[in-house]
Amino acid sequence: MCRWLAYRGRPLLMEALVTEPDHSLIAQSLRADECKAVTNGDGFGVGWYGERDEPGLFRDVRPAWSDENLKSICAHVRSRLFFAHVRATTGSAVSRVNCHPFVHGRHMFMHNGQIGGFDRIKRRVEMLIPDEFYGARLGSTDSEAIFLIAMANGLAVEPIPALAKTLGQIETIMREAGVTEALRLTAAVTDGETLTAFRWASDQKAPSLYYQEANGDLLVVSEPLDSDREGWKEIAQGCAMEARPGRKVERRCLAEAMRAAA
Amino acid sequence: MCRWLAYRGRPLLMEALVTEPDHSLIAQSLRADECKAVTNGDGFGVGWYGERDEPGLFRDVRPAWSDENLKSICAHVRSRLFFAHVRATTGSAVSRVNCHPFVHGRHMFMHNGQIGGFDRIKRRVEMLIPDEFYGARLGSTDSEAIFLIAMANGLAVEPIPALAKTLGQIETIMREAGVTEALRLTAAVTDGETLTAFRWASDQKAPSLYYQEANGDLLVVSEPLDSDREGWKEIAQGCAMEARPGRKVERRCLAEAMRAAA
Amino acid sequence: MCRWLAYRGRPLLMEALVTEPDHSLIAQSLRADECKAVTNGDGFGVGWYGERDEPGLFRDVRPAWSDENLKSICAHVRSRLFFAHVRATTGSAVSRVNCHPFVHGRHMFMHNGQIGGFDRIKRRVEMLIPDEFYGARLGSTDSEAIFLIAMANGLAVEPIPALAKTLGQIETIMREAGVTEALRLTAAVTDGETLTAFRWASDQKAPSLYYQEANGDLLVVSEPLDSDREGWKEIAQGCAMEARPGRKVERRCLAEAMRAAA
Amino acid sequence: MCRWLAYRGRPLLMEALVTEPDHSLIAQSLRADECKAVTNGDGFGVGWYGERDEPGLFRDVRPAWSDENLKSICAHVRSRLFFAHVRATTGSAVSRVNCHPFVHGRHMFMHNGQIGGFDRIKRRVEMLIPDEFYGARLGSTDSEAIFLIAMANGLAVEPIPALAKTLGQIETIMREAGVTEALRLTAAVTDGETLTAFRWASDQKAPSLYYQEANGDLLVVSEPLDSDREGWKEIAQGCAMEARPGRKVERRCLAEAMRAAA
Questions:
Q1: Integer CA distances (angstroms), A259 to A129, A174, A179, C157, D146, in order
Q2: SS3 assignment, position A195
Q3: Residue C190 DSSP code
Q4: Residue A54: φ, ψ to 5°
Q5: Can you give the pLDDT at residue C261?
Q6: Dihedral (Cα; A89, A234, A108, A136), 10-degree rounding
Q7: 8 Å CB contact of A119 and C126
Q8: Cβ(B223)–Cβ(B202) below 8 Å
Q9: Does A258 score more than 90 pLDDT?
Q10: Can you spell out the DSSP letters for A56-124?
Q11: Which helix (H) or strand (E) holds A152?
């Protein structure tokens, strides 16, 4: 289990969300509230969009709370769209390539959760990644596999159907392999313009996910960054939320999208 | 604040104490019980005596709980005398040279606690280290400074008077500088034969320290490694404990030694 | 391209081969002589057999030449059979799980060289790893893939036919994919008793490989550890060398073994 | 010995100088031309000015040539004034706090060279740092000590006299201690506006230093970034060069400044 945040809106210094709030992501790396893994100290990452199509990316294996590089980069990089993530590994190695976010061209993805029984079905899940995206697999996490399978399923064009199809494919493999543990996830993806967030679990026990919207600025988080619970809305289990530029935020039911994709 | 253990006795694989017990040092790195800093994830170290006079040393900056190297080394190195330490920094950088234990020739030292107001008096404390030992200062912690000052004060010959004198010198500097925070410490030192452990605080709030003795095997720990509280004895505040080869463990009052050293 | 050494014989402190010789493996990490990659600074590893069936393993991503942990471990660990490796990446990430040696149960493997066009055929090569060994794939190197495929092909029972079969399978994939770059390798494998070394290239340009044998002690190296060229014998291209306990070292032609395996 | 570059001018993506040129600083980390230490793989750093008074800072201990974070940050950060540095340690530990540049408030400093016999006179050199700057000493290099002594000597106000005085003080300590090795340095300092570069050696064997000036853009480097030797001018031994905003670049003789400071 991990903690993450995704922001799209007026350009902000990343520190405004990553390090400064009372219950900032860095504070959550040491002490999370709504998470089985209280400590998220197995690496971190930030990815941000600036003047290029592709995002900048800074990931490292040390705990976020003591990383002076992270602090300095967040204090000096201003961005209109960025992701930040602190990791608690569910088994795969603590290495930079296993830290979130993951980048493919101008697309960026991050994830919290777990494919139940992944160790036993890893090979079959990875086989869903076609050659075109296979070379982009640098690490060994289920998270990166989900991202690349979804890319093959059209994440760049229609994020919600693409992830829905991916979840369906993985649940089929799990079922066929007799896996009884659940598939649970929250995730975010962007192409540098549209921001889409997902919350799903095969057993209705999805990790927590909240958002805040004000004056066109959107912030999606694993846990609220402050104690003002009023200001935060929960994203319902089984839902996706899509924020396209110049459009109102839209909500969609993932189960429906999965049925349509099946 | 940090957590540590020191062992002297029949040669053991280090894993027997460092990774295997329920509340092993690695478990304490993620979740300590008797410590202000619940998470001790700012680096770790093990030092052990084998066939050489000087101890082997392995220190790294990542959290102990996810370090596969630490696990493997503890599973394969058997030693009659070893120290292990997990760190929660009180300010100085997370770097290998700031991780415990510290080694000087055949002497090894580790520490938990803090010199109150160290930032303000660092220069004056470091000035207590004579040229002979100054080149051995590789990092920037108060811990390493205490070790090298104590070495200059005769730690190699008479550990208890040497550390007592050192604590007295530092408390004098603190008093002169008007520092109101306390000096608190537990520490262990060895020359590869004698093991000495210390518990001290200028305000009677020393960090916890326990030991177990059985059949001539001595284990000193910041916190018990299991829930059997019966098996562990507390080392009283202001006390030192010295285990010389072939001699009964001796206890001495540090305040007395400080008066004698003054 | 990388540099490595494998030793089997009287128990030695690893430093005797890894850090002390004039042209030790650590010296080669900074300045190799017979290698396209002069600098082998992308991580290192040592693996050694002691009192357990499984080897101890210490791998890290920093250059070997400046790693104080490596120096200390080599100075304090004595072993009758150990591998050491310094890495120059040919593309995959610098991470611990991509450092050699690789361990599976009591088997240990390391490698120098490259599967030509690996990026394009990675998926097909990885598909040769059956489920039984797929969970053991922690990194993303061609080296680890070769090891796990060979394990599936019987490396634990008959190392030479198993690796020959593996090379044949990979060359088939390369041919089918129209890869024109060569497959070149030197490698070593052991189960803690038998030590087997390999030198192969599809284009007769295999990396260098030498050995020394004296009083039953066997040392195999990418490059001689000293300038005494007399003391070293080259292992011929296309050859494998097998040292079983209590038996004379045997040489076998890999091409023959490949034909037999086909 | 290390390699560095300093740029002041039109805002540039840092990659234009750090990673893209044929003989970029990253290329020099693997293979420097005019340097005793061919490989500069003991860590690196970049520091840049953006919208804050204080510079951003990113330093790490891995070799620059394989660091994906460095590449991404240089590709995404645009700055009007930045420093970049690759390190070859002359003895002190490979740790982030020992990597250049060093920052104090809005001032940034980096260095190449060595105080001869530093190990023997370290304590006396550090004593030149007054309490006011002593708390800012995070590492153990002679470089950081030179910076903090120079800060105490007025580096923030008049860089050239301040560094000249510092060099004089250190040479006095060396002389008194009977050190026969030389003091050699190139260095750069800035407050975010003025850029000053120095080249000095007590034995006339200062490390190389070059610059290029065009349309008000100034670039100072340890070695030219390309093979066009015409485009580069050498900074003479014993000289300093000061580029104040809106003023012509001025050259000054350091020996003179040292006499004035004495």
A1: 21, 17, 21, 49, 68
A2: strand
A3: E
A4: -85, 145
A5: 78
A6: 40
A7: no
A8: no
A9: no
A10: EEEEESS-GGG-HHHHHHHHH-EEEEEEEEE---SSS---GGGSSPEEETTEEEEEEEEETTHHHHHHH
A11: helix A142-152
Please classify residue A247 by burial: count the beta carbons closer than 10 Å to its beta carbon, then call 0-12 exposed, 13-18 middle and 19+ buried.
Answer: exposed
pLDDT at A246: 81
3-state DSSP assignment of residue C83: strand
DSSP string for C200-250: EETTS-PPP-EEEEETTEEEEESS-SSS-GGG-EEPPTTEEEEE-TTS--E
Alpha helices per DSSP H over D128-191: 131-134, 142-152, 159-176
Is the minimum CB–CB distance between D86 and chain C shorter than 8 Å? no
User: Chain A residues with CB inside 8 Å of D96's CB?
Assistant: 68-69
CA distance C67 to A19: 32
Residue range A81-113, pLDDT digits in tens: 999 999 998 778 899 999 999 999 999 999 999
Tokens coding B206 = 């020393």
**Calpha distance C114→B225 (Å, rounded):** 47
- Nearest CA distance, B140 vs chain D (angstrom): 6
Task: Please list the pLDDT of chain C residue by residue as tens digits (262 residues).
Answer: 799 999 999 999 999 999 999 899 989 998 888 777 789 999 999 999 999 999 999 999 999 999 999 999 999 999 999 999 999 987 788 999 999 999 999 999 999 999 999 999 999 999 999 999 999 999 999 999 999 999 999 999 999 999 999 999 999 999 999 999 999 999 999 999 999 999 999 999 999 999 999 888 999 999 999 877 778 999 999 999 999 988 888 999 988 888 887 7
Report CA-CA distances (Å) from C62 to A63, C41, C87, C96, C98: 18, 7, 10, 9, 12
Across the range A192-218, mean pLDDT stands at: 95
How far is residue C215 from each of residues C79, C194, C218, C231, measured CA to CA in Å? 17, 17, 8, 14
| Interchain contact A212–C (C-beta under 8 A) | no
Task: Return the pLDDT at A35.
Answer: 73
Residues A41-75: pLDDT tens digits? 999 999 999 999 999 999 999 999 999 999 999 99
Read off the pLDDT of residues D121-168 as tens digits, 9 standing for 90 and up. Answer: 999 999 999 999 999 999 999 999 999 999 999 999 999 999 999 999
Q: Distance, in angstroms, between B81 CA and closest chain C CA? A: 14
> With a cut of 50, which residues of chain B have pLDDT below it?
none
Q: Are strands A183-190 and A195-201 parallel, antiparallel or unpaired?
A: antiparallel
CA separation for the pair D14, D71 (Å, rounded):
9
D chain contacts of residue B97, beta-carbon cutoff 8 Å = 93, 95, 140
Placement of tokens 């452990």 in the chain: B197
3-state secondary structure D41-55: CCCEEEEECCCCCCC
Residue A95 touches partner C, C-beta closer than 8 Å: yes
Give me the residue label for tokens 């693409």. Answer: A162
pLDDT confidence of residue B215: 86
- Residue in A97, A122, A134 closest to C95 by CB: A97
Query: Quick one: tokens of A131?
Result: 């050659």
- The answer to whether the beta carbons of residues C133 and C100 sit under 8 Å apart is no
Do residues A191 and A136 lie in contact, with contact meaning Cβ atoms separated by under 8 Å? no
Please list every residue in chain A whose beta carbon sits closer than 8 Å to the beta carbon of residue D52. 75-76
Task: Answer for the pair B147, B102: CB distance below 8 angstroms, yes or no.
Answer: yes
Among C38, C63, C68, beta carbon nearest to D63: C63
Buried residues in A187-208 as b, exposed as e (16+ CB within 10 A) = bbbbbbeebbbbbbbbeeebbb
Tokens (6 digits) for D31: 């293979």
Instruction: Give ipTM to 2 decimals.
Output: 0.95
Q: Which of B52, B76, B96 sits opposite C50 (nearest CB)?
A: B76
Distance CA B22, CA B215 (A): 23
- Kindly state whether B154 is in contact with chain C, defined as any CB-CB distance less than 8 angstroms: no
What CA–CA distances, in Å, run from B177 to B121, D7, D238? Answer: 7, 43, 42
